[in-house]
Amino acid sequence: PAQNTLVRSVSFLPERGQQLETFLKNVPDQPPHNAVELYQSEPGYLNVLAGEMHTSIAAEFTGDWNDVSLMLNKHVFLRLLSEGHTKIEMADNRIPILASGGTGRYVTMPLYQPKSKETTQIQTQNQPQTEETKMEHNEMKVVSAPVQTAALKQEPEANPMEELNSAIESFRLKLRIAWDESSVLARKVKEVQIAQKQKERDFIQAKRAIERIRMVSGF
Questions:
Q1: Segment 185-201, tens digit of pLDDT
Q2: Within 13 A of 187's CA, how many CA atoms are on the CB side?
Q3: Cis amide prior to 43 (ω within 30 degrees)
């Protein structure tokens, strides 16, 4: 995104980012979007709401955050924090956000937040139409019945690009976790092998020492 379109930002210390990362890892998935909402709860504090769980950290804000919140996918937010980013910049329009302060710069799309719309009801009523016909000195009046129509609720359509982006970020995060676990496992296997070799060397040295003692003692 162009820098001049990023009209507001929030930044926090790396320790606070680690605090958020720990919090998000304990938040259960809430498909399909795993939404996490960020907003300014009070001056100097960033509130993070994930379903029924929430936390807040000290943060610095620029721009107007009144009645403004940022909705991100949980796994996207975790990836952002895991790369050490401590500043998030966003615009008014629905364009990608920019995260910085860590490894490189991170660009991602926020989740779509449809504005709440009250269902309106439209009533149309035809004007009474009268038809007068003289028939044996009697008047007949025909009035059309009122017609009432209700506006249909418009459900927000899911954005396929957002779902794809969320799925990719989730997959990347799982791959990274699997890679970290495999690295730890490989390191443990290597440590066991080294310990086993050390035991074998100790056994050989002890055996040789016993043989030397026998030779010296004549047994």
A1: 888 888 888 988 898 88
A2: 6
A3: no
